[in-house]
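Q: What structure does this chain adopt?
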Amino acid sequence: MRWLPRSLFGRLMLAVLSILVVALLASLGLHMHERGELLMQASGMRAAQRVGDIVKLLDTVPPADRDNIARVLSAPPLNVTMRGPAVLAASDEEEAAGRSLLFGAMLRRQLGEQRAMRVRVSEATTPLPMGQGAGSGGPMSGPMGMHRGSGAGVPPYGPGYMRQPGMAFTAQVQLSDGAWVTIENRQPAQLANWPYRLVWSIVILLAAAVAAALLAVRWATQPLAALANAADELGRNVNRPPLPETGPQEVAKAARAFNTMQARLIEYVRSRTHTLAAMSHDLKTPITRLRLRSEMLDDPKLRERYSHDLQELEAMVTSTLDFLRGIDNEEPAKPIDVMAMLESLQADLVEAGSQITLEGRTDRPYVGQRSALRRCLTNLLENAIKYGTRAHVVIQDAPTALLVCIRDEGPGIETTQLERVFEPFYRIESSRSRETGGTGLGLAIARQIARAHGGDVRLFNRTEGGLEAKLSLPRD
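A:
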């Protein structure tokens, strides 16, 4: 599901918001349904009262005057006609039938149970005077309109009226002398207007719930983000400060377990480093004694062979000590003028007879470990000069990272070996043999220093020939 957010914070917010929106929409729909039913009941009560008043009025007047009174009372949306026997048919729809029963009960409450009547409630268009929309909510006012035809149909109101959807409450009631009157009272759709106050209340409630969910989810996921950052930083610096063991019980427990793991790693690395460093350091004494004894040999060829082996052994011990110092390096980070450092290294290497050129520059200081970074650049430059004749350095200073690309003109290496050469003591025999003086630790030390700064060293074969070592150092 590609549409899902990738972060835990985003997924939790999506779940919380979805539940809130569905719950509020369901609540709004239920409220609207109940509100519509209540408004319909209120409308039916009002219509029943009007029908009851008209029936009581017609009961008090002579039969000869009832037609005139019916015509006077008939004004949109009310229609009163004197009719013969009841011809009103019941509705087939269950909802309309229920409303008809409710309207009939209201009407019997007004007129009594003994009076014969027929009622029906149905959806119909309601005539309103022009300029009085469904949202006005005011009283029905306008010109008087005479009705023709039966009350069951839609009366032909004059051009001064507009039609709006609504409900038709129709009742046929028998008067005290046996005559029948048909009264149709139509209620416009203004009773079903959208409840804007309720909508605004729901919007405010939703905004408050979203704000509370945002704070709660952020509060819940922030310790996870801190734990992830600490784990990432642990890969670069095992001596980083421990996590604070505060917060909820689960968070404090996870932080405590992480700190315990870090302490064990520090102890393991320190024990291994000190052991190997002590062994490498102790090897220097017998190497020195062997060197002195080799000088006492009479055979020049044998003396030269012993001297060469001892020199190689001493170089390996020195490189091992440098590698182990890099693991246990606690040098404080300070602003470094990388451009001045590269120019200084260029001068030293040129003085030793090497060819090195610089391209580009950076004027912003980089915060890092000065001696470690100098060792990293020295190893990369010496590697390029040793196996690629000359080195060309390209400096690219971006807002987020400092890039130092060191290119040589050597034969390059196989693609499958581009990562293996960073393994400690690994050498490619065809070009990086012991005859050249390599120990297989130069690139390993360079990458170790770069990763301790949050960056990396990568090797690439150039299309025009040679190898490119790319040192990337992120800027905070």
